[in-house]
Amino acid sequence: MSDIGKVIELISRGTENFISVYYRALDGHRENIPLLFEPNAPIVYNGNPLMGGEAYAELYSRMPPTVHDVTGYDCHPLAVAGANGQLSIALTTSGKVRIGSDRGKGLCGFSETFILRPQPDGKFRVGSCGYRLVYRAEDDLEP
Q: Is the pTM of this model over 0.70?
């Protein structure tokens, strides 16, 4: 396997772990949301700008329960100037999210895009993200 192939494989495995931890935080452990973000990460939630994980956690604390089902993702390494040779990751996820606890109601599509940046502790944190709900009336009808 080439060096770039090894990098992509490593990034893909790390991204799968991030997706699991991130959506688990959104759906049930919202107190952990700020730990996943850089302190001043720009965030756009459904067209509304926020700054940092604390603001994102505050937004989610006012929302009804959610259950995300990620059905697809794509990730790519990014070489960023000034990152001391470390690669950032561009990540896009998509799927369905149930908002609230009423069965058969509140089901929407979603798409989320992240830039994950390496940190001095060796972990990646969200450097920026954008979340968009994709609502269609037929999503309220479960098969």
A: yes
